[in-house]
Please model this.
Amino acid sequence: MKKYKIALIKGDGIGPEIVDEAVKVLDAVASCCDFDFAYEEVLMGGCAYDITGDPLPQETITTSLNSDAVLFGAIGGEKWDSLPREKRPESGLLRFRKELGVYANLRPAVVYDELVNASSLKPEIIKSVDIMVVRELIGGIYFGEPKGRDENKGWNTMVYTRSEIERIAHQAFKIAQKRDKRVCSIDKANVLDVSQLWRDVVTEVSAEYPDVELTHMYVDNAAMQLVLNPKQFDVMLTGNIFGDILSDEASMLCGSIGLLPSASIGDKIGVYEPIHGSAPDIAGQGIANPIATIASASMMLKYALHEEEAANKIDRAIKRALSEGYRTKDLAQYDAKEVCSTSEIGSIIANYAAKCKH
Ligand code: NAD
Model:
């Protein structure tokens, strides 16, 4: 039987509670598939600093690189906010992503039918929205040189190389092949030279994927189209800063932040994590919504382990739990039949995932 090695990073705040539920669901799915998991728990964030003096101990990097995938909760909290920047949990996370070379951030924005009323947009606009934002994560203006400031001037540089664009474009087209086979590449090619290169290279790469339709859109129009008619998008391919903004906008179409998963992938190993933080305000109360983390585990099965059917079982189990009216506190006002604790909804989803045959 296949045994996948998973590095587990629970982190701070609600991190341990939500990762435990994702593990429960993964084990339930494994029990009716021909594979199993071997988990190794490692530390990152404030809890790592408290024990080792470093928010990202070397062991965490080594164990992660020797695993098939990383499942991560969240880090951070007020307790560590006054530490010097390099000791803070958030610095550990940024360093972690860089060490693992995860250049592609995948953020699905899926609106569950049962929760159309949880969005700030009208139900008819957002019903059936299913978008995947593929954002370049370790290049562009956040990393370009030169950068700096003096008293009267501040400057950053947006740089992309051909190879950086090629590798993220390949990711987007491959992902689109498994979806509705449409990529919309977002840029500002009417103004920026770097965007014109982006557009040219994406167009070149698209020749290798004749089954995928490619369109281009300027970023300002994309921001508008996302709220006007989000259903027109399948895969949105973006650079770092445009994706940062658009993926937050896309995720808010869906209602609660506790629902949204993500994957950060590269050539070595992927990190699968909810988009939200450690929610210190609700930590330890058993009310956090674990669905974002459970859905991240599903992405891990799909993208890292290529266990698509098992991933589908989890996705269907989440939908079934929602359609039967099970809700954590954050969604209690949206057609809840029963308000559940973190662990109760985790068990319900695990139970359904183990039973889902189709
Ligand atoms: P947050 O995402 O932790 O919380 C924002 C709000 O959403 C809070 O009211 C919280 O209770 C709620 N929320 C978040 N996740 C939820 C869930 N699963 N179920 C129900 N409600 C949920 O953002 P914040 O409060 O700005 O940040 C808290 C800490 O998290 C900070 O230290 C921040 O730096 C850190 N953070 C970490 C990550 C990460 O680990 N990837 C990401 C963002 C923020």
